[in-house]
Amino acid sequence: MLQLFHPLLTLIATASDSLLAKYVLYLKNENRILRDRIPGEIHTKPHERAQLLKYGKPLGKAINELITILTPGTFHRWVREEKRRRKRKLIGRPGKSAVLRELDLKIARETGFGYTRILGELRKLGISRICRQTVKNIVKEAGIEPSPKRSTGTWDQFLKTHAETLWAYDFFTKRAVTPQGLVDLYVLVFMHLETREVFVTPSTRNPDSAWVTKQAKAFANHVADREQKQTYLIHDRDTKFSAEFRQFLKNEDIQPKRLPIRSPNLNAQVERFVQTIKYEALNHFITFGKTHLDYLVSEFISYYTKHRAHSSREYLPPCCAEPPPEFETIRLDEIHCEEHLGGLIKSYERIAA
């Protein structure tokens, strides 16, 4: 049968006043023993304070004899502060609407503007019943720092601002079977962060400074004829990115930007591509030498660029600038399944009429 009442409640309900006092005395001492086992102060959370106030205020002065995790003075200060808050709510001016507060914070987070410039944006939107001090209060209550501390920008803002001319690059390895045994082959990946276009070098067993510089020249030739010149290349602190490699990029007016130590998330787009090519393709094959690996990578890059949908690009492939026309009807005989890497990967295209 379901137990409807806690045994302690049943015990208290049937106890006399003298016996009830003994129960309280026991619980106080038990609580004190437990409290002594906890080092340092106990810091209560807002909902815990609310519970203590709810059950403590009806006890009046008797609460002074029961409190153990804080002093009676602290409890009574909470009571006074609660009364003042209620009084201010009754006599104070009405607060700004939730929508206006959200708009204020949205502008502050997205722009890094100071209070005056935020107020200016609100005025441009036809919002006049708000002053600079109110803007300041809303921003500070949300824990957003003043403008000089926010104006330096975030890494995400940097990527968005420079995405059109920003590439990232990194190495990945694949173990291959050769006449000399198992060896690690290295591949260098370049990715355009706006379109997710990928340029991949032929693999090598020895990614020394001369080889890396040679790949930098191949990349420079790959992007040489573009209207938008590449301005930044971000990379981690791998020692294979030699001084010669970096100097060549600078001579091509491409600024290599080295990332901080232990910060893989700052180069997350390339890291994600490496995971994709391994999970979707390379991990399914035993690779026999450099030529075999280069073929597998080349085939996957062709699929990745021309057919693979990317959520960051509204589900368009990197080579597709505009979405396809919308069709009101679908016929299965108009849909063609194209196979890649021997049928390991499939993509679907509409057959041209």
Automatic annotation (TrEMBL):
Q: Which SUPFAM superfamilies match?
A: Ribonuclease H-like
Q: Which domain of life is it from?
A: Bacteria
Q: Where is the Integrase catalytic domain?
A: 144-325
**Any one Gene Ontology molecular-function term assigned to this protein's record:** nucleic acid binding
What InterPro entries does the entry give? Integrase_cat-core, RNaseH-like_sf, RNaseH_sf, Transposase_IS3/IS150/IS904
Instruction: Write down the Gene3D superfamilies for this protein, in alphabetical order.
Output: Ribonuclease H-like superfamily/Ribonuclease H
In its UniProt entry, what is this protein called? Transposase family protein
Q: Tell me the GO BP annotations in alphabetical order.
A: DNA integration
- Can you name the source organism? Gimesia benthica
